Amino acid sequence: MIKSEIESLVWAILLVFIFFRPFLSEYAFLSLGFLYVSALIFCSVFYLLLIDIRNLFSSRLNLLTIIFTIAILVSILVSGYTDLSLYEFYLFVPNILIFYIASKIKGKEKKQLIDIIFFSAIVLSIYGLYQYFIGFKHTLGYLKQVGADEHLLDLLSRRRVFATVVSPNIFASYIVMMLFIGIGLALNTRQKRNIFYWSGVIVMAITLLLTKSSGGILTFVVTFFIFLFALMRYKPFGKITVKRFGLVMASLLCIFILIYGIFARDRLLQFLDLESPNNSITQRFYYWKASINMIKDSPLIGMGWRNFGLFYEFYKPGPANISHYSHNVFLQIAAEMGIAGFAIFLAMILKFLQIGLRVIKNKNDEEQGLKTGFFFAGCVFLMHNLIELSFYFSQVALFWWIILGLFSNYSSESAKSTAQADLYSAA
Asked: What is the pTM for the complete model shown?
């Protein structure tokens, strides 16, 4: 009884930590961020010790994840570590711990976890709206008086919403994940609660527009059309047929794209000027070219975990900006961890995709809509990280690891159900 009460208490504390995760940037508040991560690690380890963690690595996705973590440690030790690489690994540890917790929790805890994630996203999105309509004006006036950094002043003057995250693009990466989670929740609940979830989706969609992140919006649009195609395999949602639902959502998406085209036309015009040295597309080509050259120079062991920025200065072309990230998670992992580390990461991703596709094809599952939303939330994060860097910011990436953990959980549940069915048939 005492163990059960302690477990419930620690779980409640963990939920509080997860709720506040997107509100706290460890890069903006170093001391507070360090304390937060330390407390999160402690609570996560404590909770794992309390719950039944037998066969923790029986799932292939769980096994691949621990192998990937070991590969990071090997990369740090073999390629040479820096204070930054050690600190970045320390920030990475909670992601892995939360992944394993998500892979082992039961039905009630899963529901609580999903609800707290979505509720946190709604609160942060509302804060983003406040920032755009009220906060920017006051903050910009204050920073001009105290003489703040020019980059920050430029960001605020362009009124790109970033809420509590370090940049609008990384915030967009968080929002696109939460949008699919919200849609999945709305497709999975009764009509009364649908209003709440759809309202949250609308708020987050508006917030995504206000980030003015072309990459985030593009990946959302592309993934959403694939998501609609997947929904065509569903049975009708109440009185609305799948085709009608898809038509309505596709129409709303077209309106969304049109609004963005009008709203952020100046930013879109900047992308068309490929000769500009500050064009973000041009700069990304520089990052990717440098990443490929790093892979060629050190194909086996790489440059070392989180050492991309340390070596980029020696690889960057003349007009390129300084960057600590490749803006492509696959290229950066290959450059930093070598081919072996990249192969492990790729195997982990492919296993997630394999599990996800199998799970969402199960039409007999009452949570098919929810799981489809979560699957595409994981996919859109990966797609956005083909051109972005949010994988390396635990403030956002933690939720992607939760998604991976939940799909490992779903895979284990499916395996148990199949085994029980086979046993019943044999009897």
From this structure: 0.90
